[in-house]
Design brief:
Helix content is 28%, strand content 22%. It has 243 residues and is α+β, with helices and mostly antiparallel strands. It has a single domain, classed as Cyclophilin-like (Cyclophilin). A 9-stranded antiparallel sheet has the order 10-5-6-8-7-9-4-3-11. Helix 2 packs across helix 3. It is globular and about 40 Å long. The termini are far apart.
């Protein structure tokens, strides 16, 4: 066979093989690249993926100074008139009615509840036949949230009609350098004994009352505590604002 014929034969063979490869490539299905977002599939079972609910962006919370506190809370009170809240615990719910006259305390509590502050806290102090106190925790996020919200105090709002009877809902306060008896914006307590706790009248602001769930308060008050009156079993809370 001449050189020219051999060359022609090689070229024809190469063209035929190339045509076969193109045919195979076009007939092969494309790999799917989309991912399932709700499940993870394994060889033996399908595992549900836990969906994470969005958390409040507490770093974007507005910090309020002591100087602008009163007008800020008064404006907030007008825009947020809710008077009832529900404290949800593993032992049951506690429904509280807030008093309209204690404008600054009510507005502050409603604001913190709507921001989700209390949902990172628990009843951290329990004194049988006295009070259960909430609004704090030993978690780092609680300290961070307080830092972001500001170190302000709520001026006292005393009313003769609102005393420390059983079920009174009142604000804790700092005792040092607090001649004005201003309240902590973050911590609250509920009076437990039937005789009340009237030595606290005109010392702490009562700004609401329990209207349902005192049996839950009684259960919490009986929990074992350590030497610092901290319950041995954490009682986590969620606070829900009711219409």
């Amino acid at each position: 066979m001449s050189l020219n014929l051999r060359l022609i034969s090689v070229i024809v063979t190469l063209l035929f093989l190339s045509s076969c490869e193109d045919s195979k490539s076009k007939s092969k299905p494309l790999e799917a690249t989309s991912k399932k977002v709700d499940t993870l599939t394994t060889d033996t079972k399908t595992v549900e993926v836990e969906k994470v609910e969005p958390q409040p962006n507490y770093l974007a919370w507005e910090k309020v100074s002591q100087e602008e506190l009163k007008p800020f809370l008064e404006e907030y009170a007008e825009e947020n008139p809710e008077m009832n809240i529900r404290i949800i615990t593993s032992l049951g719910n506690i429904d509280v009615q807030l008093y309209p006259e204690t404008v600054w305390h009510r507005a502050n509590f409603i604001r913190l509840a709507k921001l989700g502050y209390f949902n990172e806290t628990f009843f951290h102090r329990v004194v049988p036949n006295f009070v259960i106190q909430g609004g704090n925790s030993d978690k780092v996020i609680t300290a961070k949230m307080r830092s972001q919200l500001g170190k302000y105090l709520i001026p006292a709002e005393f009313y003769p009609a609102y005393r420390h009877h059983r079920g009174a809902f009142a604000a804790a306060k700092y005792t040092e350098q607090n001649m004005s008896k201003a309240s902590s914006p973050y911590e609250f307590y509920i009076v437990q004994p039937k005789s009340g706790a009237h030595h606290l009248d005109d010392e702490h602001t009562v700004f609401g009352r329990v209207i349902r769930g005192m049996d839950v308060v009684d259960q919490i008050a009986q929990l074992p505590t350590d030497e610092g009156e901290w319950p041995m079993r954490n009682v986590f809370i969620d606070v829900e604002v009711l219409e």
